[in-house]
Amino acid sequence: MALLETKLHVPRRRRGLISRPRLDERLSRGAESTLTVLSAPAGFGKTTVLADWLAATAAQRPVAWVSLDRRDNDPAVFWSYVVAALNKAIGVGASLLQAPQPAIDTVLASLLNDLDAVAGEVVLVLDDYHLIESREVQDGMGFLLENLPAQVHLVIASRADPAVPLARLRARGELVEIRAADLRFTPDEAAAYLNEVMGLVLTPAQIAALEARTEGWIAALQLAALSMQGRDDVAAFIAGFAGDDRYIVDYLAEEVLQRQPEHVQQFLLQTAILDRLSGALCDAVTGQDDGKATLTALERANLFLVPLDDRRQWYRYHQLFADVLRAHLHDEQPEMLATLHRRASDWYDQNGEQAEAIRHALAGEDFAHAADLIELAVPVMSRTRQERALHGWLKLLPDDVVRVRPVLIVGYAGTLLLLGQLDDIEDRLRAAERWLAAPSARMVVADDEAFRHLPGLIELYRAALALAAGQLPEAIAHAQCALELSPESNHLERAAAAGLMGLAFWASGNLESGHRAYSECVAGLKRAGHVVDVFGCAIALADIRLAQGRPGEAMRTYEQTLQFGAEHGGSALRGTADMYVGMSEIYRERNDLPAATQQLLRSQELGEYAGMPQNRHRWRVAMARVREAEGDLGAALELLNDAERVYVSDFFPEVRPISAMKARVHLAKGMLDEACDWVRARGVSVDDELSYLREFEHITLARVLLANDPSAADTIRLLERLVAAAEEGQRTRSVVEILVLQAVAHRARDNTPAALAALHRAVTLAEPDRYIRLFADERTSIAALLKALADQDVASDYIGLLLAAMDETEGSLLVAQRLIEPLSARELDVLRLLGTDLDGPDIARRLFVSLNTMRTHTKNIYAKLGVNNRRAAVRRAAELDLLSRTRDR
């Protein structure tokens, strides 16, 4: 029998390959075991990886290579090639090649004896082993592996797991496996391939998008690179890259799909509509009863099937493979699409997965069934704050389906309300009321209980609309009506009505009534089992107590809510991160800036999913306040700008606008023009009608006026009006701040008795809850007045704390004045860590910043200290006593 010599050649190492040392190391480790298996779908680079490794290690051991094809299923042909490869590599088996085809058992026994006599190591590689289906060949391979001499290492590259005793070898520790997950390009490898090998110029974001879409599948990246070459619209191509790219379609159709038996092709096409696959679900969709067995076979065959659990019950198709399958299904069996989706919807509905049932009902255009499912899902979706998903489903329903369903009409209004799309809500509520007033046979109701609750729910939504429009009395009236219409057993609806009433009281400045109503809301939410919403209420309750000048009670609210959350679901429930942001503000006001920073870092560590949607801007505002207290006004302003960028509104009254906070930082930086620009932009004046909603802005206006002309009579008049309004509303924190500003204004007019009187009242009100920053931030204007009060034996211990805080701040400024330019608070943090053994990446991780940001801070430190290296910076800092001061912070 003539043998093809080319089948015995080790493939040449391809030019332009990227280095993959992690795979080389795995293969070298495999050369110390009995068997190495490279098992992955088509296009994962198995042969290329082997050729690259063998080229790099050719001097270490001889290699016998066989490139298999379907003709090698003949045992005589198969073993002839194996013997020929070994003979070529190490000179064994020549007699077997010349003999007149002895029995396979004889061939194997003789071959093993020859191999046993070989002194050095040898590697036998069988490439494309998935083409071998012969039971006789597989039995022979099992015998070979069981008796293989220790110095012979077998490597099998295959698209499917080879039919050899893998479990036995794995248990003995004689098997090394390299699978698709190992062969996939990492992001760094993908970047090197696309930009260095293929000559493209892609950004990290574009590379990440391609890597994610292809899931590291090398062939897909190669095909994508081919498609991009010569294109001017690379960004658009990447954004739309999917399995309908012509190269991907052709490759998968030729290499995978068309090679499968007809019944497997049908299974693949019909189940392609599914995002997840299980045996039972596939049976329901295909109408067959072999789903589990087929999935097992597909996984064994490496047909782009990804297991989703350790028990091999749920799978998914590779993204691009699924795209190709769906494209073929649309082209070849479009009439089956609706039926397949409806079968999937029924299965999911029967198995309690409403979201998937709805998705497939909509995809199959079974709109009546989808509307029933959505209506039944509204209570759960609303309770779990999935209004965006609910809104997305409702938009897909035809108008004629929705307009005859009053429960869905009101549910739609509720999603629009939560998404801030208020324009059409009242029309929808009236449409639902018309059905309630005159029901007919055309009306469709799937959820009878929800239908009975519609009158109260409609009033509840009207209360929210009125609140959003600033119509506070109307909001309170509608909320009261909702309470009257809602049965005592409907804890959630009653809690929502109480909450809206609390918000309206809060916004109007009636803080105690707001706190009382919000407390009723919390009690109702707890009875309804809505743990997550309790966190949102805690923010409101604490904010109200802070405005009332009761930070101790606010702190207890945060702590009790965290304890409640820990008892009902864990330490990272949605809203947990917001508790730490709120606690940070209290620590900052007490001048415990390290504790304030630590709370914010704890919030950050929990991640965005542990925070309300507003957490992103609240966190930045809180950190800006800390940075401002530390004297790092530039960082504070940057954080406030960032907070404006990510701002998300809610129903909470916006009593401390970010723009007003920025105006205050501008004042602290001496940027009076910018602060005056804010006054003009907001249109605030000394003659405005005062309200709680604009109180913070009017106090900020007073600060701007003081900076512009401290002795102006208009400023005194505005402060007098503000303090009267705040006292009437029992808003103690505002009262204290205004009194401090009055003291500053009277001092500027040389009216020391009036200044001392105002400051005396402020100290008396602030002492029980130990406010510090309210006074320390005005140190240059009131320090002398505080000392005068202390000399009069007024709250001397408390005033001592205030003066110590002012001295600490002043000391930091004196040190800063000895530098070329003051170090910011964050630069001081970096400086402290530069004096440790931590390297740059470790310092960045410790401070929760990027490595580039850390390097920027380091560069700034060197410039400000007048040095050019780390050791010199630490030495210079010691000379200025910066390190000890940093440790005290």
Explained architecture:
By secondary structure, the protein is mostly helical. The chain has 49 helices and seven strands. The strands form two sheets. It has a five-stranded parallel beta sheet. A two-stranded antiparallel sheet has the order 6-7. Helix 20 (367-383) crosses helix 23 (406-418), helix 30 packs antiparallel against helix 31 and helix 40 (732-748) runs antiparallel to helix 41 (752-766). The chain is globular and about 120 Å long.
SSE blueprint:
Elements: H1 21-30, E1 35-39, H2 46-56, E2 63-67, H3 75-90, H4 94-98, H5 104-116, E3 122-127, H6 135-147, E4 152-158, H7 166-172, E5 175-179, H8 180-183, H9 187-197, H10 204-214, H11 218-228, H12 234-240, H13 246-255, H14 262-271, H15 279-286, H16 291-300, E6 305-307, E7 315-317, H17 319-332, H18 337-350, H19 354-363, H20 367-383, H21 387-396, H22 399-402, H23 406-418, H24 425-437, H25 448-452, H26 454-468, H27 472-485, H28 491-508, H29 511-528, H30 531-547, H31 551-567, H32 576-589, H33 593-606, H34 615-630, H35 633-645, H36 658-668, H37 672-682, H38 695-708, H39 713-728, H40 732-748, H41 752-766, H42 773-776, H43 779-791, H44 796-817, H45 825-834, H46 840-847, H47 851-865, H48 870-879, H49 882-888
Parallel strand pairs: 1-4, 1-5, 2-3, 3-4
Antiparallel strand pairs: 6-7
Helix pairs in contact: 1-2, 3-5, 5-6, 9-10, 15-16, 15-18, 18-19, 19-20, 20-21, 20-23, 21-23, 23-24, 23-26, 24-26, 26-27, 26-28, 27-28, 28-29, 29-30, 30-31, 30-32, 31-32, 32-33, 32-34, 33-34, 34-35, 35-36, 36-37, 36-38, 37-38, 38-39, 38-40, 39-40, 40-41, 41-43, 43-44, 45-47, 45-49, 46-47, 47-48
